[in-house]
Amino acid sequence: MFYDLNHEYGDLDLRVRRERLATAAGLGFDCVANARVVVGRLSSQQAYRCPPEAVSEQDAFESASPGIKRALQMCQALGAQRRSIRQLTRITLVTDDVQQAQALTARNKALEAYDIVSVQPQNDAVFKQACTTLDVDLISVDISGRLPFQWHQKAMRRALERGIHFEVCYAGLLQGGAARRNAFANAKRLTQLTWGKGIIVSSGAASGMAMRGPHDVINLSTLLGLKQQQAKEAISKRCSDVVRHGSQRQALKGSIRIETSPLPAMDIQLSVGSSQSGSESGDGEKGVSSGEGQVQKRLRIEQKQ
C-alpha cells in the first residue's frame, strides 16, 4: 500500500485537486492526505472552519487528464478494478514562535478533526520543541532551500523514540539550480543523522504533473542516501506508522505505566526437633517433624558417602 501524505489543499481550484487525485490513483497510490497549511498563529476557530474536504472519486476520474484516462481505461480493459483511494485530512503549522507552536498539543480539541498533525519549524527553538514535547505526527522539512535551523541529533533521536517521523518532499528535487542542490544536500544530511529511520517521502505537488509513480519515488529516494528497503518503506510502512500514530493521538488522552518488581526474598527458618517432640506436638507439627527427620537422615547418608 503506497502513500502520498502531502497534497496541499490551499486555495487550489477544485478541478486541479480532482485531476491530482486521479493522477495519484492512476500512478498506483492507495492513500493521500489533503494538507491544510497554516502560517503563524493557529486559532481554534480557524482549524474548525477549514478542514480539507475529500474530493469525489467519480468527479476526479471525469476531470482527469487524457493520459490518466487512457491508463485507467487500459487497466479496466485488462480486467483490473478501479482503484479506490483513501483520503486523509492533515494540518501543517509553519511557525518560528514557540508560543504559537504550543497550539499543537493534545488539549487542542480542534486538532481532533485531522488525521495527521505536522509542524514545519522555522528556527532552532521550534525544531527542538517539536522533537521533544509537541503532540505531532510529522516534522516536515523544506529541503529545497537553506534550512532555518540546525540539525540536533539528540533531539532527533528523542523524536524517533516518540514515534514522530520526518518528512521530505521530492518536489524540490525536480527543480533546477540551487533548489536541487539544497534538496540533495539537506536530505542526505537528514538520512545520515537518522540512519535512514523515521523518514517518509511525499510529493508536495501542487498539480498532477509534478507527481511521480511509487517506483520512481523509490528510485529517487535512493539518491538521498536511503537503502532500497528504506526507500520503499518511506512511502509505505513508515507512512502507515504515521497514520497509526495519528489515530492513537486522537484516541488516547493519557497513558498508564505499570512496572512489575520481584517480591522480596523471605527467609523461612524451620526448627528441627527430635521425633519425641514431634510426637508430643499436634498433627500438623508431627507432619513437619517427620518430614524434617527424613531430610536429616538423607543428609547424613550423603555425608557418609
From TrEMBL:
Keywords: tRNA processing. GO terms for cellular component: nucleolar ribonuclease P complex. The keyword tRNA processing applies. One of its GO terms (biological process) is tRNA processing. Residues 271-280 have a biased composition (Low complexity). The keyword Transport does not apply. InterPro entries: Pol/histidinol_Pase-like, RNase_P_p30. It is found in: Nucleus. This is Uncharacterized protein.
